[in-house]
Amino acid sequence: MLASFLMGLVGGQRAMTPLAAVAIAAARDELPADNGAPKLLSHPVVAAGALALAIGEMAGDKQKTAPDRIVAIGLAARFVTSAIAGASLVPRRQRWIGAAVGGLTAVAASYPGWRARMAAMSQYGQTPTGFVEDAVVLGGAAAIARNAAKLGAV
Question: Which has more pLDDT, 79 or 36?
């Protein structure tokens, strides 16, 4: 369940990254055995599409017109993608709990993440803070997906 929680923290910052991370891990057969991931998630086209959406979100985040992550549609997207990721990182019998943990954590993490980003932007600007946030999110998502089995044993 720890992996679902941690991926939810990632999802609070970038909606598409958790889905992309688990889809890529599923396509590479790197998720823990008996995972709760939907079969479709492991298809290479789905993984590539999720990755493209994550890249698009990261690019769009640097735009002045980018909406805040705490708008309703942003929170809904974070909940759904992090719920799918959360379910994918736990054993099949726990997938509903993993989904709830991932989705709810993402929504909750959106608010402090947004506040931190706003504070950093006032000092360093939108683009630099966005790139730093992207690096943290990408590194975190990759580490969580890669080590989900170990995190499940904690």
Answer: 79
